[in-house]
Amino acid sequence: MLNEKEDIVLTTQEACHYLRISRPTYLRYLYVGKIKGAKAGKGWKVLKSELDRFLRGENNHLNP
Predict the structure, then answer these.
(1) How many other β-carbons are positioned within 10 Å of the β-carbon of residue 18?
(2) Chain centroid to CA 3: how far?
């Protein structure tokens, strides 16, 4: 179960800063499914817990 601290919604800028990657790289990861996010208006939103999953190397979205 996710705790409240991990269930924070981040913007594209915040996610790039958290992951220490460029915006184009982040967007490519979203488009290919390495990171699961949601389009919200002109930008993307992603849960911090999803970024932590990505950093741990858990690619459940690519290999179900």
Answers:
(1) 16
(2) 17
Predicted model pTM: 0.79
Q: Are 37 and 46 in contact (CB under 8 A)?
A: yes
- In angstroms, the CA 56 to CA 3 distance is 17
Dump pLDDT digits (tens) for 46-56.
999 999 999 99
Query: Which sequence spans correspond to the domains of the chain?
Result: 9-55
Cβ-based neighbour number of residue 10 at 10 Å: 19
Question: Each residue of 4-61: pLDDT tens digit?
Answer: 555 899 999 999 999 999 999 999 999 999 999 999 999 999 999 999 999 999 865 5
